[in-house]
Amino acid sequence: MSSLTEEQKLRIEENRRKALLRRAERSQTQPSHASTGNAELTKVANHKPTNVPLKRKYDGTFNSKQGSSSPHFQSTNRASGSRTNTVPINKESFYGTKKQVVAGSCHLISADRFMVEVGYNQDMIAMFQKVPDRRYHPDERHWSFPVSRHDQLMAALKPLHPGVAVAPLPAHVLRCLRQPAPDAGKVDLSALDATLLEALMPFQREGIKMGVARDGRVLLADDMGLGKTIQAIGIASHFHDWPLLVVCPSSMRYQWRNEFLRFLPSQHPSTIMVMDSSKDFTTEARVLIVSYDLLSRCSKQLRDVGFRSVIMDESHNLKNPKAARTRAALPLLRAARRALLLSGTPALSRPVELYTQISAIDRKFMPVFNDFGLRYCDGKRNAWGWDFSGSSRMTELQILLERRIMIRRLKRDVITQLPSKQRHLVLLDPGQVHCRTKKMNAMETRMAKASLKAAERRGALLEYFRETATAKLPAVCSYLEDLLDSGAKFICFAHHRVVMDAVCELLERRKDQHIRIDGSTQAAQRKRECDRFQSGSAVRVAVLSITAANTGLTLTAASLVVFAELFWNPGVLTQAEDRAHRIGQQDSVQIRYLVARGTADDHIWPLVQRKLDVLNRAGLSKDDFTEADEDRQRSSDQQPLITDLFQQLASEDGERPDADGESTESGKERAPSVSETGMSHSQRSDGSATDDAVAAAVSEQWVTELCDADWDEWMGDDNGDVPDAEGPTSKESQ
Q: What are the Helicase C-terminal domain coordinates in residue numbering (predicted)?
């Protein structure tokens, strides 16, 4: 102890004294365990008794004798071990005098009722019970009231302030609810082109009326496959506000032009123009169709035109307000008299993506972005600012959008008006199809020769078909990428391995989960892959071989089937379509055939189209062409004989074998090519009866030969196989 300083010695002594005091306290409660050092304890306790601090100890009891609920404390003198009497503590000073505030808010649960989310307050509940048409929701433990009672309820809650604080419905909600809803019933569509009116389904006609009633400024958000394109064309043509600008994904530009030419025959084709590059910019077009990329690059020139109507296809591409395409699109949309935004998925992941589209149509709806984010995006402030990545009050937002700017119908809402299967022909972007190469030109020239025999023509078409697969590839991948951006789940059929490889490479680069089934896939693996596709939404694409996966698979998780390549056996095509169109499918199935001008598709598609018509009229197929053909042939009460149908097919093909088995030209006009015909579930060849003179010229013997030989030759062999460009057929490799 000699090396310790005086201060350290005093501290040690003080600690020793405190320890002995604690031991003395314990010995008083347990006298039988008293230690032999009591004399020393007494000496230390009497040393400096006045310097020991007193501590209050809560005994956890209330003074019931005095009828008070105030807590009591006991004071203990640790030096002497004595206890003082209990000291009453005032309840207000112990718990605090601040009263608890019951806070809440209001939000819509339907177009005519709102709910009050608030805690419990007896006075408030008593007041709620006095409001007429009140309703208590035991599941949510909240009350709801008619919107017409909103102001009355807020006035009744004022006397309870500040104990009860309920935020009313925001001004934009009340303003929207109190404005009269547009009356679509008074809209007259008789001025539209007759071709357009005849093609409209009832719900599409109603959609056009709703768009016109909202003055042509609307977000058309119908489910995929419900015909947003034809409705947008109908709304735009009703107002006749030209010029019209159409902005769409690059792969859909020429499809839009064909739809305008098809449904608006009153417009001259020269007035409907597509911009392939900035050099194609013109101010003379009545309808100008551009891609989103060109919109960004030519924004100044487009603004100077002064478009009176603007259509934005796949408008979810405008979700980012800082993107160049959004900055270029918003001034055009706000300046135009008519603004039509089209998207089956307006918000791909979160409601904040809707704001730019809403503000483009109606800036007065919610002019301040922060207000929108706080109310509908579950806005929260963090160390870096505001976070609007969440969602809140989605029911209210949907009610306001549908009442003010949005038209949305799901397939289940109009399923009774839809055919079970719809076919569409999609013309690929010619700027991305490599059809002007030397090899492709030589093949097209060879196919145009009238002197080719049937076998030679088939061989030339096979070679042309293989080369077309490579020529179409960039355009096919571009179309599929736009489809993936829209969030669709679909089946993609292809025949050549080079096409399937390119599609799978695209999906892997985008990190989209997919399955692949071709001729090399074993039976057990096929079952596992199908189960993966069917089980959830994570696997978005099934890449299938037309010949190896057209039977035995059930893939009803998708209602969209895309054919990246054609195939001339219609039986194989319809079987492939039915991988999605089968028992268990709840939606109308969309079939999209991707075709390109100036390729083998010009020859294969008309051939497939004629043979599908023949099969349906003969009762040998179950696809949707059957009903349409019956509608056009009601004048004939008798079902045509199958031999008559084969005679018609032969006369339309324009070839007839002579005595030596060779084919000669019959003088009939050639079948329309892809560039001359469009396709949907209701647009095909007219199915008119063959001219009597031509039918009489076809002998019964030749019909029999056609059934036995030429039919198989043109349709493919019994297995429907065509040699692949890179090896044996899919079934041989399997």
A: 479-633
Mean pLDDT value across residues 283-303: 94
Domain that holds residue 592: 421-715
**What does the chain come to in residues?**
734
pLDDT band at 20 (very low <50, low <70, confident <90, very high): confident
Peptide bond between residue 88 and the one before it cis (omega within 30 degrees of 0): no
In a domain, 178, yes or no: no
Q: Please state whether beta strands 71-77 and 82-83 pair in parallel, antiparallel, or not at all (unpaired).
A: antiparallel
Total structural domains within the chain: 4
Residue 325: which of 360, 276, 288 has the closest Cα? 360
Cα–Cα dist 696/690, whole Å: 10
Q: pLDDT digits over 305-332, tens only?
A: 999 999 999 999 998 999 999 999 999 9
The CATH number that applies at residue 164 is 3.40.1170.30
Do 315 and 393 share a domain, yes or no?
A: yes
308 and 431 share one domain: no
Q: Give the start-end residues of each E strand in 21-141.
A: 55-62, 71-77, 82-83, 87-88, 102-110, 113-118, 135-137
DSSP designation for 468: H
| CATH number for the domain harbouring residue 621 | 3.40.50.300
Whether residues 697 and 549 fall in one domain: yes
For tokens 């064909």, the residue is 258
Domain end: 416, 451, 468, which one?
Answer: 416
Q: DSSP string of 367-413?
A: --HHHHHHHHS--EEETTEEE--S---HHHHHHHHHHHTEE---HHH
Q: pTM for the whole thing? A: 0.65
Beta carbons within 10 angstroms of residue 354's beta carbon: 24
User: Quick one: angle between helices 228-239 and 253-263, nearest 10?
Assistant: 60
